[in-house]
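Field reference: "sequence" (input) and "structure" (output). Example, L-ascorbate oxidase-like protein:
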Amino acid sequence: MARGGSAVAVLSFLLGLPLLSVLVAGEDPYRFFTWNVSYGDIYPLGVKQQGILINGQFPGPQIEAVTNDNLVVNVFNKLNEPFLLSWSGIQQRRNSFEDGVAGTTCPIPPGANFTYILQAKDQIGTYFYFPSLAFHKAAGGFGGIRVLSRPRIPVPFPPPAADYTVLIGDWYKTNHTDLRYMLDSGKALGFPDGLLINGRGWNGYTFTVQPGMTYRFRITNVGLATSLNIRFQGHTIKLVEVEGSHTMQTAYSSLDVHLGQSYSVLLTADQPGFDYSIVVSTRFTTKIISTTAVLHYANSAGKAPGPLPGGPTTQIDWSLNQARSIRWNLTASGPRPNPQGSYHYGQVPTTRTIRLANSAATINGKQRYAVNSVSHVNADTPLKIADYYKIAGVFSVGTISDSPTYGGAYLRTSVMGVDYRGYVEIVFENSENEVQSWHIDGYAFWVVGMNGGKWSPASRQIYNLRDGVSRYTVQVYPNAWTAIYMPLDNVGMWNVRSETWARQYLGQQFYLRVWTPSTSWRDEFPIPKNALLCGRAAGRRTRPF
């Protein structure tokens, strides 16, 4: 981490902001990272594979930050194909140019580098980064992000003895290039070959605890295809945070973690000194696979006696009831000292209802997935950059309806327009027989309701308008719906996507263009001076240096 005039000057140069405006915010520290992205041999399931490493690591390095920190990440692409990183949950306030997805940011060419400028503005909690292009996520390149509260901001639990990141996910033994070819050919990937915990297979990772101490475990599902359940042999866990929100501190024997979701739990080492198993298993799958890590007591006398703890398998009601039990802690501080509940989200009138229905389809003889009948295809130029330069013909606003059409699916670059400062109700409708997991970049939203069956206006009668949790990724159960409220307070071009990675890759995503006629930097930053330009924007200049 660096402070002072040199760091301020670097940030001013890269963002293109006046030095005075950066000096005003100069109290926030800077954390500089240099990352080399390369291929390397990995053996997560005992079989040699080509993995994507960051500084030689799989998973990639942990990012440690504090609210409002500026993160300067210089990424060198040593792969043989273009590469991008995205930052799941980091809201990129006023700056979707840095979001790192195909619709916002030009890829880093092989042999080149790009410096991301991020700020954890008014955020706390558990997040992660991942490669967003070309099915690279199936090869690694992901890692955890912790954003801690500032020292003067109260946290609703004592400091833990240690803070552990737990990246769980399903895994294929097949290289990502072959998986990508299968999808491009219209074939299904099939069932994953195994599960990983922090990039390791069965009993491959150990967490050490001291008797009597309490530890924080930050759990994220970084997988491609399946919801997972996690449990700690002989221990209960207390939920304290979900994706940047402090929660009511409910105890659970196990926890469902859907694709792309993050949770923080506290575990007290209050059992006899043994080595206990941390068990992760698949949910809602006909075939159940599992893996374990080791919870090692420092005074361990060996393996804990007794069988591994069993968990839920295909029970949807169990998971739905657990999801409904997760509540916002109204009296706890968030990133600022005022209580989270001081924002009464349920009392704000909504300005628009958007209904989004996912579907599977065959288009041109190949498997595709769609939202409101539109299967998204990436344009030849990032949408945000085309929007900035007013390049015609790249995309059109309104190419996706704000309600289901129930017609045949078709291919289109899919962009929905919404107005800055609006307050929308979004209903995710799932008529398929598999769980969906939805993420919205640039935002957190309140989960106000979920239930089986079809949504109708009468469904609002069961909404939780008081203490629904605020988060950035939410599940939708089979033949069910989930409703959220979201304030449109972040101008930009934001990806709305399935976290089931094959579905995302094959079209179950679109972009939400949050627009204002204002050109004030108070509403949106201009394009960064170091932005890469590609497609129809190639050869243009960002702004004079």
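Residues 80 and 110 are 5 Å apart (CA to CA).
The helical segments are 5-15, 19-24, 176-184, 316-325, 383-389, 501-505.
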